[in-house]
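Attaching the record inline, Q. Sequence:
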Amino acid sequence: MKYLDEFSNPDLAKKLIDEIHEITTQKWAMMEVCGGQTHSIIRHGIDQLLPDGVEMIHGPGCPVCVTPLEIIDKALAIAKRPEVIFCSFGDMLRVPGSSEDLFHIKSAGGDVRVVYSPLDALTIARDNPDREVVFFGIGFETTAPANAMTVYQAKKLGIRNFSLLVSHVLVPPAMSAIMDSPSCRVQAFLAAGHVCCVMGTSEYPALTQKYKVPIVITGFEPLDILEGIRMTIKQLEEGRYEMENAYVRAVPDAGNPVAMEMLNDVFETTDRTWRGIGMIPQSGWQLSPKYRDFDAEYKFEVRDIHTEESELCRAGEVLQGLIKPHECAAFGKECTPRKPLGATMVSSEGACAAYYTYRRLDLVEV
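Structure, as predicted:
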């Protein structure tokens, strides 16, 4: 299949790996921002094929993983209400809150439904006018346009029993927060191609100049990632720090102007807490005042819920690239996909889940 077989070609992969070895003369540490890239790297063993001293640092690019614990608890509080039909993508149902998850709510009789589009939730609201329907809107810039369109349609059609529980986060502010950390080891970034499909490339040149780090936009197939690594190391070896696009087949510089217009209408930027990391200023979206009536936090009065993270779980350090998943003492022991302490173990894009699934199970004493 086009873009699957050809971007997994082992002969081309070997050529790229050989070139990476040829041009590498120093130790380098780069961060892949997206959890989908992390899974591809671990699944295909890309990090183990790189020259000694070239390290892939796994970033906070899993939207499920960085959804703050307090938002999960707000979702649980709303989903327990008898008048509510709570709709979500399936990957959120097993993300642990303070004491339970959405599956527990569902098994106890809560009306929790898996949908494949926020528009499915809007249809459910239209078909059930006597119930309140809430969609759990999480994600980076990639999933935000569909959620924005759904709220726009709800307002346009006058479907007042629909609302959105919003937990959208933005990639560039997170990259800045990582670079501003005194413990930061990141020397370059592989940026998430799907985010740039929506938002374009305009935000990255300023980051390269401010922090003097290369940023290469990449896709998710093995050859995409290897080419992104090759371009990144070439910049590092030459002492350059520029934004380059290695995913031109999908990412135009301007992004998707129609989607961005919708986002600017429905959302406004806000400070946002990232699970395991903390608050990053202006790193998220919330519904703008024009659409406040569709904000589930206001409708169900759950804005004041606050929580504390597990003391055993070191997912925050994993998300910041400070440790690898297997360096957490709870990895594979107290924390498994069946009984996760944090979202990084249960999410389909989580770094801990990648290490567990693809047998990076070396347990170490910490």
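The chain is about 40% helix and 20% strand. The chain has a mean pLDDT of 91.

More tomorrow.
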